Amino acid sequence: MKIIDRFSEWFELRKKIGASTLGFVPTMGSLHEGHLQLLRQSVEENDVTVLSVFVNPTQFNNLEDFQNYPKNLGKDVGLARSVNADYLFLPSYEELYPDDYTYRIHESSFSSIMEGAFRPGHFDGMLTVVMKLLMLVKADRAYFGEKDYQQLQLVRGLVRAFFLDTEIIGCPTLRDAEGLALSSRNSRLTAGELIAAAAFPALLADVELSDAVVRERLEALGFSVDYVETHEDRRFGAIHVGDVRLIDNVFLSREES
Ligand code: PAF
Prior knowledge:
By secondary structure, this protein is of the alpha/beta class. It has helices spanning 7-17, 33-45, 63-68, 73-82, 93-96, 115-118, 122-137, 149-161, 191-197, 199-204, 211-220, and strands at 2-4, 22-27, 48-53, 87-89, 141-145, 167-171, 224-231, 234-241, 244-251.
């Protein structure tokens, strides 16, 4: 796996890759099994796979959250190699943001609810960096996890709105044995918090409960709840477990088994 941290080097390589199919997995690093699944799928479906690691400051609405975001580049390199990624792209802020973020992408509808309501500016930063990365990498396919379902839908909308030539592939959420969605932020939970947090996906998935009751039950368990909302048969939630914020969503199937 080749590591690239200069745009000039990437542009040369991109020319060489030419018409071979290119799969792209953008991440903020601290890779876990969920990211590895995206990489495996990309390796299987494309001739060449590029992973990017960039902890994007513009999508953090809170400086402390940005500073506490787990960073593990040494381990990430080994994990990316283990699944046969071809290139690891490590852009710098200076090259990615020559305008120092004076230009940005704003979506004015779906981005204003849920994560957008609780993390002002988050989706502007996310959409802007994804737009930049898609323009740079020029992938045939880009892979995103369904855990960040609102993000996934907004990225699909971005590609439609700006006629980008990359197919966006959504991949199912991976969960631990207790049902907790895998997330880089889980590494900041204590052993006790990890066990307690398993109630979160279980309550979200309970089709017998209304959103309001799910919220009440989460609060009764001691979590601070940002939102529990259902949109198009998918229930979304965000909670704070200690000082770690977790998000998740589950498709609510009401079919009798
Ligand atoms: O989901 C993430 O890790 C980030 O939001 C992304 C898509 C890499 C953009 O920074």
